[in-house]
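W.,

You were right to be curious about this one. When I first looked at the sequence I had no strong expectations either way, so I just let the prediction run and decided to look at it fresh. Below is the sequence, 210 residues in total, followed by the output.
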Amino acid sequence: MSKKIYEIFEKKEIVQKIKEKLPYLFQLAEIDNSRDGKLGMEIGSARERIVIALLIFKFGDEYIKTDIPITQKETDVIVFDEPISIKTVTNKKVVGVKLIWTVDSQKASEFIDSYVPKSDILLVHINWESTGAIYLFSKEAQQELLNKYGIEFYFKLPKKGTNPRGVEISNQAITKLVEHSTTKRVDIKWNRDNSVEYNPYDKWVEYWQD
């Protein structure tokens, strides 16, 4: 099934813009959301906004819904009526993709037992000074793998007697999703721009000056 969002993986001009702009914008986001060289928890939301801005740029804000009810935990944005979950991971390999955050083992187990993929996953794999990618995993592919291989394969299950930090898709399931025939992908070279001169306070100072 063809989806409108596939265009960001298929149109040459937008693919080139992703390759050129995404590392630079994510670098700015890291500067904006770090203190004493360490990234804050808000970096995930900042990256998410950058990806949503890409979608608005490509399709227009009339086709992008961002005011998602808090009850829709797996959906971050709706594109042409298709729910999308945005994930970002920083690693040499595509690992550690969380579906939900929770420290309650009972809630984690309930989530896993009742889980049905409701959103496509737009995943950005950040691999600084090397190669990563942006992927789209359809909810149909997610459901197919879950049905075929089962819960113990698909999820990284919380260890008994410990508090989970969330529910993750297992590394082996992510590998299957990456290799799935319906998955869309754009490879990205994650090179930092060492010439960047950016102060996250400048824009706020400008507002005070106006």
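Here's what jumped out at me. The chain has a mean pLDDT of 91. And, maybe more interesting for your project: The chain has one domain: 4-192.

Coffee later to discuss?

I.
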